[in-house]
Amino acid sequence: MIANQRYLVPSSGTAFFNRVVAGLTRAGISVMGSRVLAVRGRTSGQWRTTPVNLLTVDGERYLVAPRGHTQWVRNLRASGTGELRVGRRTETFTATELTDAAKPVVIREYLRRWAWEVGAFFEGVDKSSTDETLLAVAPGFPVFRIS
């Protein structure tokens, strides 16, 4: 792994929370905008799923990886496409990764909306952090615009 490719291993509490949110979302109950992200594995070709928070900023939709360069991030980079699922509804999308310079506005909004859930992964950065601070941490937080 490249040194600046930050990755936080999920704790048992995070894994439990993810299972609960994923289960509710699969049942058709979106928890504060949750979706189940499905992306084909970059080597296996098998569908891989994980719960995510779908963020809308100025009419554009984004996926943010609060734990860094996770497997879903690597798979999405390789495939460029995926699915967002809630219950029986499935939406296919194309993903474009944002440059670090474009991330501060999206990261700030993500923290404004979900800091209660993911704030611990941001290690002292919050919605009131300066643009310079958010820009400094941006390489550790992949962000994708989806369409």
Helix-strand layout with pairing:
Layout: H1 12-26, E1 34-40, E2 47-57, E3 60-64, H2 71-79, E4 81-86, E5 89-97, H3 103-118, H4 131-137, E6 143-146
Antiparallel strand pairs: 1-2, 1-4, 2-3, 3-6, 4-5, 5-6
Helix pairs in contact: 3-4
* CATH homologous superfamily caption: Electron Transport, Fmn-binding Protein, Chain A
Q: What is the structural class?
A: alpha+beta
Strand order of the largest sheet: 1-2-3-6-5-4
Number of strands: 6
Averaged pLDDT, please? 92
Sum up the overall morphology in one term: globular
Could you say how many structural domains there are in total? Answer: 1
> What is the chain-wise order of helices and strands?
HEEEHEEHHE
Residues in helix, %: 25-40%
Could you tell me the CATH topology label: Pnp Oxidase, Chain A
List low-pLDDT spans: none
Q: Strand content of the residues, in percent?
A: 25-35%
Q: Biggest β-sheet: count, sense, barrel?
A: 6 strands, antiparallel, barrel
Q: What is the number of helical segments per DSSP (H or I, 4+ residues)?
A: 4
Distance between the termini: 29 Å
Q: What is the CATH domain class?
A: Mainly Beta
- Architecture (CATH level 2) name: Roll
The radius of gyration is 14 Å
Pfam families: F420H2_quin_red
Protein name: Nitroreductase family deazaflavin-dependent oxidoreductase
